[in-house]
Structure formats: C-alpha cells, structure tokens
Write a structure and sequence with these properties.
Residues 308-334 are annotated as: Disordered. By secondary structure, this protein is of the alpha+beta class. 38% of the residues are buried.
C-alpha cells in the first residue's frame, strides 16, 4: 500500500514548490513472537518466556518510549530486562537525539540473549498514523507508540489463549502519555513503578536516573548558565569563546580550553570551582574572558590531585550536602599574562559512565539498614568531581569499584547528582582494575558479537590462498620477504624485501596485510572495526580491533604461509633516492618472522652470508640514509619513557620492569614504514584531493617551548623552534658530556610540549596545513598497520580505488563530512588507547612495587609550587614528591619546608648546611614505595619521597627506614639489598 503526502516548501530564492513524499505501508511485517503462526516470519526474536514481575505476574513484553531510553538506558541494559519491543518511531528518534545512546541501543539489539526486537510500526498498515492538524510532532509520536502497543495487544490475544496469554506493557515517565494509554485500555507504568515490582533485583531502584537526589545548598556560588541563543550570539560577536574543557591531571581545580584569541590559538585558563561553573572534563563550553588584570603571569604550578578525603566528613552536613568551602587554592589570584576566563554556558555535555568508589565517610547507614541515603562517589579519574548518588546498598558496595552515571548538576549543588549503575568488583583486584581502566578510557572490550563473527570466512582455520585469489594480484611468493617485529607478536601486518637491480639500483618492497579483502564496507565486521578504531595494548592483554581469526591468523603475514597483501614497491638508488614507486595487490610468502633482536644478530654476524641476511643488511644501510635525509629536512627525534614488564607465567603479575631497549632494526622497520606512509599519502591525495584520510602534526604552541628554553639557559643551551629543523638542531646541540641521559630527558620534555598528531579529511584544510611537523613531511597518512588501526583500512580502500581507475568504490570514500566525522572518532579512540596503555603500566608498576622499598636516581621534570615531579630512568616511571611532609593540601602546617621561587622556577630551603635548591633537570634520589595506607581502603598509589638532597622534615630519614629492607641502586641498576636496624 502506498500513501502520499504533499506540502509546500519555500526555496532560498523565495519560490514556493510542492514536495510530494511517498510512504509505503505493508501487511507482511511480522510480530517476531516465537509462538505466532499468523505472521510468516523466520527467526523470531521474542520468547514466550517473557518478563514476569511481582506487580505484573503474567508473561509480558516491554515497550519503552523514547524518553525511557534517553534517561534510563542503564535500567534497560540490566541483564534482568529482556524481551523488549522497540518501535521504529522510538528507534529513529533516538538516532537523531543521541548517537551514544543509539549505539548502546544497537548493541542491545545485537545481543541475542536480550531479545530486543525493532518493530517497523511506521510501515505497518495497521499501526501507521498520520499527524493530526495542530498536533505536535511529540504528541503524534506518542500516539503512534500507543497505536502499535494496542495492535500488539490485540494480535497476541489472537495467537494465545487465556492460559498462555502474553501482555504488552508500555513504559513511559510521561504522565500525560501514561494516562492516555490507561484510558485506552493499555497496560502502562512508569519506570519506577515497574522496577519496584522486580523484587528479585532490588538494585534496579538504585539504578534509576534521578536529578533530584540531594537538596541544594544555596551558598554555593555557581552562576546561572546562559541560554543557547545568548551563547550563539556571544560566539558570533566574539565576546564568548568555544572550546572543549580539559582539566589538569595534577589539579582538579584548574581547567583550560584552546580557542582563538586575537587571531591566534591560545590556551585560556579556568581556575577554581566558581569559574568552572559545573562543567566536567570533556564538555564543550562557552567561556567569557576575565579582565586582563586577572590574567596569569606565571603558570599556576600547583598540585591538587584530589580533595582531602579526611575532610569529607567535616565538610558534609547531616543530609549529605557539603558546606560552603573557602579553599585557599581556589580563591588565590595568580599573576600572569596568560588569558583566564570563566565558563558561562554548556554547549554540549559529554558525560559518560564513571568508575569510582563510595567514600566511607559519607555513609551514615548501618549494615542492616534498608533505607536509601545520599553518599558521595569518588571517581577514579581525578579530573571528575565527586558525584552524589542515592542508594540502599551503601554498606554492601563498600570496598567495591562501581559504575555511576551523572543525571544533572543544579546550580545550588556543589557536586553533580547521579545514580548507581553496577558493581565492577573488589577494589585492588587486578581484573577489576583492568576493567576500570578500560571503561574509564572508553575502550570497547566486549567479546565480538555473533553477527560480527558470522562475517568471517566460513573456511575458518582451513582458509588458504587459491588460484582465484591471484586474479588481479602480483604473485610475489618467490621474493625473500621477511617480517621484523617485537617478540611474541602474532598480529604481523608488515613485511619487507629488497633485491638488487641490473642498473645498480634496488627494488625495495613494503608488504602490508590486505585486511580489506576480509573486511568489506557496510558489514557488521566493518562497523565493529570502525567503532573500536584501534587495537589497545595493555601490559597483560590485548584488546583487538579485529577478531583473532583475522588479526592473528588469516591476515597476519606469518612465515612460510601464502598471504594476501597490499604492496608498495620502490626503485631506490644506492643513496636511497626514489626513482619510482608502484602499488599493487599481491600474494606473498614470508621467508622468516624475526624479532628485532634476531634481525640485529643477523646483521652483526659476519659469518651469515645467505640472501635473506644480505637483504636485511642492505635494508639497514638504506634505512640509515633515509633517516639522514629526514633529519636534514628537519625531522625531530623525540622520546618518551617506555617500560617493559616481565610477567609471571601463572599469575601474570610483574616480576621485573625495565626500559625498552631500541636497536638498529627498530629504526630499519620504522624508516620504510614512514616512507610507505608518505608515498601512499601522495597517491591517494592525487586521486581524492577532497576526501583523503590523512594525518597531520600541528606545530607546537610557543608558550611551553619558551618555558623549557628558559629552563635550560643556565646550562648554556637554548631551544630554537621557529621551524622543525631549528628545533631538531638545537636538541642535537644540547648534550652534557658528564650526563648522557640529559639529552634524552630534554627530548622527553620537548615531546610533552608538542601538539597531538591527528587524523583529518583533506577537504577540510588548506594544503599548507597538512604538514606533519615532527616528521618534517608535507603530507602523511597511516597505511602500514590495518590489523590494528581502522584508519589504515580506509586508506587501503582509497589506495585501491586510486590505482584502479575502473573500480567501483562507495560513496563513503568521497563524502567529506563522513570522512571528517570518522577522523574525529579515530582521534578519540587513538588517544584513549594511549591513555589506557599508560594506565595499565601504572597499575602494573604499583603491583610490582607493592611491599618493596627502593632508592633510585631520578631527574626533576617539573617544578610546582607545592612539589616537584621526578622521572626515574631505570623504570621509566614518574611520581610527585610533595614539598610538605604530609600532602599538598595540608593547611595545618604554618612554616613551609620549602619556598617556591617564581623567578627561576625552583623550590628552595634553608638548611643548617646552606640553601638547598631543587630545579628542572636536577638529579635527585627518591624512595619508591606503594602507599598501602589507603583512604577508605580503596585507592592504591605509588609514593615517591625525597632522599637526597637532604631537606630536614621533608627528606626520608633513618627513622622512617628502620627495620625495613631496602634496595639502593644507581642509574645502571647495580646495587644491593640491605637492612636498616636500630
């Protein structure tokens, strides 16, 4: 059945045109109930073992409206809820209202155990309704949902009898909609009414979203947010600045946004609770600049990691609401010339579920209490404020990591208000803490859904390359191709070969796993890979972007097995000059899978003269020449402290930790991968100038590099950063003959001054902005790791289309908007993967040092007003040494142990033997322990304390070490264990 509707629409020129839309209605849309014989259906979703509650003791299906999904998605996701009918009306509304909720809903639909069925009520002849005159779109949609519920109720009566009758229950928190449904004879409940009837799962009441958990405190000085129109006008006329709020990792009261001020991208600082004005890390905010008299002349340089847990109880009233606070750190006005501002509006909330634990001091109930109470949840992410939740399970949840969601943040509440979602497990348990860090960094880590796995080759392990695969591919199985990877690597996505040419040049090939042969566009497998974005590497596990069958087997370029590849093949002169480059799909058979160490041994062992070894030596010589050319162009050699753990085979606990060792072969592989990425970028841009997926590295802002340059002036060095080449040359000159680690440390700190490299769509920027600053490359992309990066999958598709003019490619390859949206998602996933990896290192470092006391040499990497940060080269770890004997926020201490000198950015203390100064790059000796005297028994942190230079009252003394075994080591790791007794 075809229905048409028409309406008049005015064009931009003012002309009126008639628009006719066709709407198809069908009779063959089935109900998907497994016992139904009326519908000609296959694979029914809804079970006859439907929901049962104390309030509705008969089997029934649930039909939530749009607002229930939007506000109570945590309830809907609970395992106790199943057999849910999602109306097409609701499904489409959610897709337009919230992409995160829509993605969570899709995950529920894909979970076969949940039995969620999307019913196309908008195309069913008996459920479709037209909008009435003067009826709002919202009212029409509510009526459409009621119409579909009524049809289902009638339909179920036809297919069941009184003994096995199944009802349909509408869930809606809209009182008007619920009243109308009940008047029409439908069964309708609010979400609270419904879950209160689920007596077997009482925790569902705690999970209810609620924006009025706590009565407000009118003394809290939060200002009302501006309206949307006021914000829009302010941004247009330049009185307001838009940006994403970033809270300092070391000071939860210090935020910033990056915005254009006076024609240049500038960091605007936002200091203190009143100026942060209820914004949370990641929110897109509108900021109003403060008068220049309140701008900063020097960085705030204060460590405030978290609020004093010991003072939580003192700051709470009997009802759980905090009293007015006059934190000296909040009200301090610091002189500087850096712009400061205050948040006057929220443009977009980017709230997510947060992991945390309940503060013991906020719990008033006893173990036997069954009443709800307001408690404070302390998020694991120190940048997130405390969160109020109301729960009846406070005592049971003590000692647990829990997941909570924020519902609202009224202006008269010091902290946001939210609700409990679920318990994650016991605090301190390694598996629990690993799940926490994955959730905190938004890493999709669930098992691959069945529909994703269904997209894998049916042959599975028996899959092999056949003659059919050779069609359109170059057969390169005769070449001496080999891979060089870290030890234990199973997802091998790149391999190399070289062979001399008759003219004296060399043919060099980079061969990359042809993932796109298996991962086709618009499949569930492709969608899952796009959502995951990247493989995440933790210390003890790997969260794969692709199912293991692909990543570790069918795509992996293992030796002595035929594999499909995408090859980039150059002709290079002996001086590593490119004569030409060719791209082709290929079939290869790697002759060896080497580790970096094994390849290095082959290069160094002069007795080895086989063709494979000779080829690796040639590649090594060419790589060195390629590296020199990059350096001459201005590429920067940066550094970061990276550690490697040795794990116990059974417990997977760390038994040793050390800095990663880099060999020549690491650089060998890197140089050819960089060359391939540049060559591919040039090729795809020539074909798709407006929609290529590229990667850029913006030049650094001058502020941080100026600070670093000033810090090394006393050492007679300076940092020039007008160009990447000037920066590279100034870093090369900064060498101390008596301290070989100094140059690496300087490069580590320089790296931290850099902007993040990001993916982007070529059609959104001018060509001069494509440049990769760190690599000194005019154009760059990612091509060489498609097993672990989805960006490379897209680039493979672009390259395939670029080298095959007759190939039909999808519209997604030329859609600029879609490509830029994908770039944003990939940038987020890439950044979160990096942070998750670092958190995993931190977790395992804490486990390694638990029960140990070690003294190690370290370097000061940052000086703060109330402490300094130390990097210990042996372990590649950093920690904060506070400049007071207790903590950074202790107010009882009247005489500071050290004084901050803003003129030379140092901490100074007058001791009986003279003035002791601590400044950037200073060598110190620190004591490393894990703080096991945990607040609420919930949080474990590595603790660093100063040993040398000795500052009375601050440095660790003999009294703190008595009767403890310690290990004293130098930078080289040499040392001995000794016992300090009375």
């Amino acid at each position: 059945m075809l229905q048409s509707k028409s309406f008049l629409k005015r064009t931009k020129k003012g002309n009126a045109i008639k628009v006719v839309q066709e709407h198809y209605l069908r009779d063959d849309i089935w109900c998907s109930v497994e016992c139904c014989k009326l519908c000609l259906q296959t694979g029914p979703v809804l079970s006859t073992s439907a929901m049962l509650t104390a309030q509705i003791p008969r089997p029934h299906y649930i039909v939530p409206d749009t607002n229930v999904f939007m506000n109570q998605i945590d309830i809907i996701e609970h395992p106790a809820l199943h057999d849910v009918i999602i109306m097409q009306t609701v499904y489409e509304e959610i897709r337009h209202l919230s992409l995160p909720i829509y993605n969570r809903l899709r995950a529920l639909i894909n979970d076969q155990k949940k039995r969620f069925y999307v019913f196309s009520n908008e195309h069913h002849r008996e459920t479709y309704i037209q909008r009435l005159k003067d009826e709002s779109p919202n009212d029409r949609n509510d009526r459409a949902i009621r119409s579909a519920v009524k049809w289902y109720s009638t339909h179920l009566k036809k297919i069941t009898n009184k003994e096995n009758h199944i009802e349909v229950v509408l869930l809606t928190d809209d009182v008007g909609n619920r009243t109308k449904a009940q008047e029409e004879g439908l069964s309708a409940f609010s979400v609270r009414e419904y879950v209160e009837g689920m007596t077997d799962t009482p925790e569902l009441v705690d999970i209810l979203g609620n924006s009025s958990n706590v009565e407000g405190d009118k003394k809290v000085p939060y200002e009302e947010h501006l309206t949307t129109s006021q914000i829009t006008n302010g941004i247009k006329n330049g009185t307001l600045h838009q940006g994403t709020l970033n809270i300092s990792m070391h000071n939860y009261l210090e935020g910033s946004i990056l915005s254009n001020v006076n024609g240049a991208d500038t960091q605007i600082m936002i200091l203190g609770r009143p100026c942060l004005n209820r914004a949370i890390q990641g929110d897109v905010v509108a900021v109003q600049l403060l008068p220049k008299s309140e701008w900063l002349r020097t960085p705030t340089a204060v460590v405030v990691e978290e609020e004093e847990e010991a003072n939580v109880n003192a700051d709470l009233k009997e009802d759980g609401e905090p009293k007015e606070q006059n934190d000296e750190l909040e009200s301090e006005v610091i002189e500087s010339s850096q712009p400061t501002g205050k948040i006057v509006g929220i443009i977009k909330r980017n709230w997510r579920p947060y992991c945390g634990f309940i503060s013991k001091k906020s719990v008033k109930s006893s173990a036997t209490s069954t009443f709800s109470e307001n408690v404070l949840v302390v998020p694991m992410d120190r940048r997130i404020p405390y969160i109020y939740i109301r729960t009846r399970q406070a005592q049971n949840l003590m000692g647990q990591r829990i997941l909570v969601s924020i519902d609202a943040w009224p202006k008269n509440s010091t902290y946001p208000q939210g609700h409990y979602v679920r318990a994650l497990g016991a605090a301190g348990d390694k598996s629990t803490e690993t799940e926490v860090l994955l959730l905190e960094h938004d890493v999709p880590f669930q098992e691959f859904a069945s529909q994703v796995l269904n997209g894998l080759p049916v042959e599975g392990e028996a899959w092999r390359v056949t003659e059919e695969h050779l069609s359109g591919r170059a057969d390169l199985r005769h070449l001496n191709i080999c891979s060089i990877d870290p030890p234990g690597c199973t997802d091998i996505d790149d391999a190399l070969h070289v062979r001399p040419l008759p003219n004296g040049n060399y043919e060099v090939g980079v061969h990359i796993a042809d993932v796109t042969h298996f991962v086709k566009p618009f499949t569930s497998l492709d969608e899952e890979a796009a959502n995951r974005g990247t493989t995440v590497y933790l210390v003890n596990k790997r969260i794969d972007m692709l199912p293991e069958l692909l990543g570790s087997n069918l795509c992996s370029l293992r030796c002595n097995v035929d594999r499909l590849a995408f090859s980039c093949i150059w002709e290079l002169t002996s001086d590593a000059e490119i004569v030409n480059v060719n791209f082709t799909k290929s079939v290869i058979s790697s002759k060896a899978s080497l580790t970096y160490e094994e390849a290095q041994i082959l290069i160094d062992d002069t007795r080895k003269q086989d063709d494979l070894t000779k080829g690796i030596r040639i590649l090594n010589q060419l790589a060195k020449k390629l590296h020199k050319k990059r350096i001459d162009r201005g590429a920067i050699t940066l550094a970061s402290p990276e550690v490697r753990f040795q794990l116990d085979f059974d417990s997977q606990d760390p038994v040793d930790v050390e800095m990663k060792e880099l060999r020549e072969t690491n650089a060998l592989v890197e140089e050819f991968m960089l060359l391939a990425n540049v060559s591919v970028a040039e090729k795809i841009y020539s074909k798709f100038p407006a929609s290529s997926l590229l990667r850029r590295h913006p030049p650094p802002t001058s502020t941080k590099l100026k600070e670093l340059s000033n810090a090394i002036k006393p050492l007679n060095f300076s940092i020039e950063f007008e160009t990447s080449r000037a920066l590279a040359e100034s870093l090369d000159r900064a060498v101390l003959s008596d301290d070989p680690y100094f140059n690496k440390l300087l490069r580590i700190l320089t790296t931290r001054c850099m902007m993040q490299a990001v993916y982007f769509c070529s059609g959104t920027l001018q060509f001069q902005d494509f440049r990769h600053y760190g690599l000194a490359a005019g154009i760059y992309t990612h091509f060489t790791s498609p097993i672990r990066r989805y960006s490379d999958v897209i680039v493979h598709r672009l390259l395939d289309a670029a080298i095959n003019p007759d190939k039909n490619y999808g519209q997604e390859l030329v859609d600029i908007n879609k490509m830029q949206k994908l770039s944003d998602v990939l940038n987020h996933r890439h950044r979160m993967a990096q942070l998750a990896s670092r958190s995993s290192v931190e977790l395992h470092t804490n486990i390694f040092f638990k029960g140990k006391i070690e003294h190690n040499e370290g370097y000061v990497t940052r000086v703060l007003k109330n402490g300094f940060i130390v990097l210990v080269p042996k372990y590649g770890i950093e920690g904060i040494v506070y400049s007071s004997s207790a903590s950074s926020t202790t107010k009882s201490q009247t005489t500071p142990l050290v004084v901050y000198n803003s003129h030379n950015n140092s901490l100074e203390s007058v001791t009986p033997s003279g003035t002791v100064s601590i400044k950037l790059f200073d060598k110190v000796i620190v004591q490393i322990t894990v703080d096991e005297d945990l607040v609420d028994g919930m949080r474990q942190k590595m603790k660093m304390e100063l040993v040398s230079p000795f500052i009375p009252g601050l440095s660790v003394s003999d009294n703190t070490l008595r009767k403890k075994e310690i290990r004293i080591e130098d930078e080289g790791g040499n040392g001995k264990r000794m016992r300090i007794d009375d």
